[in-house]
Structures are given as structure tokens and as C-alpha cells.
Amino acid sequence: xxxxxxTISHETNVxxxxxxxxxxxxxxxxxxxxxxxDYHRGTKTPVGGLMDGCAxxxxxxxxxxxxxxxxxxxxTAEAFDTLLGQILEGIEDAGxxxxxxxxxxxxxxxxxxxxxxxxxLAEVRRxxxxxxxxxxxxxxxxHTRLMVESADVLIGYDTYPHVDGxxxxxxxxxxxxxxxxGSLVPTKAFRQPPMMPALQAQFTxxxxxxxxxxxxxxxxGMEAVETVTVAAGFPWSDFEDVGLSFIVTTNDDQALAxxxxxELQDLAWGMRRDFLVKPVPxxxxxxxxxxxxxxxxxxxxxxxxxxxxxxxxxxxxLRAILEEGLEGGVLAVMWDPEAxxxxxxxxxxxxxxxELGGKTDDLHGKPLEVTGTVKTxxxxxxxxxxxxxxxxxxxxxxxVVLLVGGNEVIVTSKRLQPMDLELYRSLGIEPTERRFIVxxxxxxxxxxxxxxxxxxxxxxxxxxxxxxxxxxxxxxxxRPIFPLDVEMLGITELKSMDE
Length: 499
Ligand SMILES: [Zn+2]
Hints:
Elements: E1 2-9, H1 22-28, E2 29-32, H2 34-40, H3 46-57, E3 60-68, H4 77-93, E4 99-103, H5 116-128, E5 133-137, H6 145-150, E6 153-156, H7 165-180, E7 186-191, H8 209-220, E8 225-231, E9 245-251, H9 254-270, H10 282-291, E10 297-301, H11 316-324, E11 329-335, H12 337-346, E12 351-356, E13 368-378, E14 381-383, E15 393-395, E16 399-404, E17 407-412, H13 422-425, E18 436-439, H14 446-449, E19 455-459, H15 484-489
Parallel strand pairs: 1-3, 1-4, 4-5, 5-6, 10-18, 10-19, 11-17, 11-18
Antiparallel strand pairs: 2-3, 7-9, 8-9, 12-13, 13-16, 14-15, 16-17
The structure holds zinc ion.
């Protein structure tokens, strides 16, 4: 059997002023043909899973395009049309095929399509007719009716931090095999409760998300249930299908799919108050850490997460650290190619003064003038050793460590969410020996950092990924939606939304 695969992966934050053109994909990862396999072979990633799944079933996997950009603003029409065209061409050029297994993100928005994955799947369907079409999705997918109707089976991650991409890739090929031998006749139910949880409330390691995932797994244990997806959604895609959704796929039993999807929807709605997030004021957290002994305390700058499209050059936390006189910490990371250039030119061991960060927009603090010693300069490349994307290469671009006020500030040329401890170790920093680590991340840092943390504190920082969703002025969401309308109206008792 010959199965074709392709990927367009982007979590679009339409409020970001970093335009997502083809160059943004090239900067992160844009691979063609065999390059797709060379990069993913042996990695614990979705495409690594598709490759191994095909090997296990004796299927041939045919690559087309793998395009992934760091979360940023709306994808240009030119970039989207080019990538989609290349995937469709790749499928046509593959000749006689038996099915398609895509890996998509699910929260991509282009200038010409609010729902790029719906568009991709509909176009692939048009080309392949009634052959099996299966796709894996990120947990942050904003699923749409077009996506659900275009693919035979949709398989979302069950985890955030995303540590099951590989398993979902293997599962996608198992599902294709069952579609091909006729033992699976998929019947699907799709539900979108009026809920848009903030990223920080989507952590699957604790209630309330853990409860939904547990319920999905219980259902997957039932006789005629094939797969259940709980997708938490990504608010900043700002279109009508944004938010929490459920897809229940059963084997030739529509009534069961509908009943289970209704049950999940009711369960989520009943828990909605528990999806509210209460971060800690920055100064309160820093003063607590200053008084404490031991470490590391993990301080999450949740408003400036590049994984959600924030610039990662916010200065609010660093400024507060220097003003409070905290020492012995690490800041991961500050994206500032200009500062990297100046510091690396100045050289290791020299003192340098730079205007650091705050250069992308006015939502993440002003540039901060700091004087520090250049401790380390590297090419910023390292291999992931932790549980997320194990074995894949990370690339921060040229990177320097600046010693500022007794703290190590990691300054990078490319935007990369700090998720893995190898980030520090590649720079000669042993994270377990530091008093505190500031991570610009909403949830992904938890997978590798929680095991070493004395305590994790979510900081109430401003920025594009803040959980204060009412302040963003979203324009295209379907309304009313929880918790936005409740916050806007100042209603604390939610009874009025129960009707
Ligand atoms: Zn995600």
C-alpha cells in the first residue's frame, strides 16, 4: 500500500505583527521529498510516528512537503497557496496511491482562508476521491465542520504539553489500515460548546482538562468507539470556530457517536468555572522567591509565549528582577538578534551595553538598557532529550548568555519556546543548580521543568498570550462565548448562560 503524507503546521495569532510569509517557514522548517524523512527519522514526533506506523504495516510512505513556522501572525495568501499547491502536486505526482495521512496543526489562519486545515483537507479530498484520508492534529486545533466532513478520521493529541505526537502518528496509520481492509466504517459526531479556555487552563496534567481527557480515554475503551478527540482550541486565531471542541469517531454507530459527544459537551460546560486562570502578580512572586532558599523556582512568563505567537522579547519580568535585586536566576529566553550580534562581536568575557528586547510591539514592555558580561556564544543548535519531540533538532540561531545583575540572560536570534532542559545545558548552564528560571511559555515548559521545580508560579504578565482574554478585542469569534462575555459584562454568577 502507498500512503502519501504532507504537513502545513502553524498556530496563527492574528494579533501578532510578525507576518507569516514563506521566509517564516524557511526559518523554522520547510522540507521537501526525502528531506522530510531525513529530519524526522527516529524522532518521537507525529511524522516520526507516521513513518514507523507505515514500516510496521509494510506500507510505503511517500513524502511531499513539511512546512512548519513558529507561531506568528496571519499567513500570507501567497505562502498558503504555494504550500497547498505543492502538497496537491506531490499527491498527483505520487501516481497510484491508496490513502493520505496528513499531520496538521488545526489553528492556522491565512489572509484568504480563516480555516486553512479545512481548506487543505477539502482540496486533498477533491484530488483523491474516496480513498482514505486521515490527519493528526495538535491539541490547540480549532476544529471546523469542513475539517470533520473532509477527512475520514481526525486524531488529536491527548496531551498539553504535547508528548504523544509520535503515538498519534502511529495510530493514524493503524486507522488507515483498518479503513483499507474495510474493518472500520467511521461515523463521527462533532460538538463545539461555547467555551474558549485560556492556554494555561488547557494543561492536561491537572483538573479540569485531565477530567475531559480521562473521560475520552474511558470512551475509547468502549466496543464500537474508534477514537475520541478533545481539542482545547487557540483563542488568537479569532474566527467563528475558535474554542473547545470534541470529535467522537465510532465504527458504524452514529447514534453512539452523538450520545458520547453530547456527554463530553455537557461535562465540559458543567466544569466551565474551573477553566478560569488566576496568575500571580510579578512582584509578589519575585519577593517570595527572594525570601526563599533552594530552587529552582520556575517562573512562567505566560503572557510572552512565542509558542502562542507572542514575540518573546518582553522585558517586564527582567526589569522587575533587576529592580528587586534578585540573583542566581536564568531568563529563558530573550529574542533579540541585534543584541546577539552586538554581544557576539564584542566577544566572550567582554562587557557590553545593549538595548534589550521590547522591539516588536508595545504590548510586552519597553526596551531595557542593560550592561553585562558575555559569558557564552553558540550557534544555538541542540538535540531535544526531554519528553517533547525527543531526538529532534532545535535551532535558536546564534545565541549568547549575558551575565546581568548576577543572572544569566539567554539571548537568541530565533524565536523558540523554552521547553527542554538541553536548552540550558547546551549553553553550559545546569538548570537544577539555579535559584529560579524564567520561562517564556504557557504550558509546554511543564513537561521538562516540573520534575526539577521546587515550585511553578504562573506570572501575571502582559502580552499576546495572557489569559486575560477579554482585553484582546477579538472580532470574529462566535458569541456569546465563555469566559469572554462573562468578563465583559462583569457577571460573576453564570446562571444566565445556562439556558
Ligand atoms: Zn499546541
